[in-house]
Design a protein that fits this description.
Blueprint lengths: L6 E7 L16 H9 L2 E8 L8 E4 L9 E8 L7 E12 L2 E8 L1 H4 L16
Antiparallel strand pairs: 1-2, 1-4, 3-6, 4-5, 5-6
Length: 127
């Protein structure tokens, strides 16, 4: 079965988040979340092949030198829904003069932010 390449990828720069989860954002709805991250956009790619979130690798038609300042990405597999996946870019590798390989790790806090419920919790602080 043929699946039309219809994935949207946004490559972002200067996003002040990292995979230590020391800091993260709290949003009231999905729209404000996506709008906030869209403000960091450096590259927009449309009609890309399906992005597998667990694989953690994406090949894009952009020179590696143009991606070294990107530290975050978001993608949406529109053939299968409207959910945005958010990810930390861990590495950019040169493939050839027009293709780069991006190695990423899903940001589980932002990707699944509205799919879980925070309940009353007890935080114990120690010195």
């Amino acid at each position: 079965m043929y699946i039309e390449p219809n994935t949207n990828i946004r490559l972002l720069k200067n996003v002040p988040l990292d995979n230590t989860y020391q800091h993260t954002y709290y949003f009231t709805d999905k729209t404000s979340q996506s709008n906030h991250f869209l403000g960091y956009t450096k590259h927009i790619l449309t009609e890309q092949t399906y992005q597998r979130s667990r694989l953690g690798v994406s090949r894009v038609g952009i020179k590696a030198e143009d991606l070294f300042d990107c530290n975050y990405m978001m993608f949406q597999n529109t053939n299968f829904g409207s959910k945005w996946f958010y990810a930390f870019i861990n590495n950019v590798e040169y493939v050839n003069n027009t293709v780069s390989e991006i190695r990423f790790e899903i940001d589980v806090m932002q990707t699944w932010f509205f799919d879980y419920e925070l309940r009353d919790s007890f935080v114990q602080r120690e010195h």
